[in-house]
Structures are given as C-alpha cells and as structure tokens.
Amino acid sequence: MLIPATSTEYLHIPVTAPAGIDLTSTPVRIAVVAHGDNPAAGEWQTAEWADSQARILIGPDSGTLLTRGTYRVWIAIDPPGPENIVRLSGTLNIT
To answer: What does the mean pLDDT of the chain come to?
Structure first.
C-alpha cells in the first residue's frame, strides 16, 4: 500500500474470521513499525472493526504520524478461546 505523508486516512486490514466467530466484539490491535522485528508492547495501538476489516487512522491529523519510509504492518486479534493471533499483514510505503 502507498500513502502520501500528508494524507490522514484509515489503514484497512481485511480479516477472515474463523468459522463461528463474530469478530466485531473481539479486541483487535495494529502495529505499524519501521524495523524488521516483531512489534514491542508499546508499538501496538487499539484498532476497530469496519465491514470485516480492522482499521486504524494514520496521518498528520491522527495519533499515528508516519514519516516517509517503509513500514511493516502487524495485526493482533484475541478471539474467544485459547488463541491470541498475531500476523504480519503487509508493507506500507509512506511517500
């Protein structure tokens, strides 16, 4: 995904729910990091659900200001049961 540094918009991550799980009440977090490691605890931000996608507002008019560069986007979902799912969901380029 490519977003200009001057844009404030939602970063959307499509999610396919496991059978029988309603994700709308499941906590979801997103981390956007410029390093190659797994996100640290303080890098996760609370996200929200919108039309089977997790989303977070990024840009100058949000709490997540990103400078030009390449970022790795991670998602964490904590559905009911023993699983706590963390996945690398893609790359974000800020121009």
So the answer is: 91
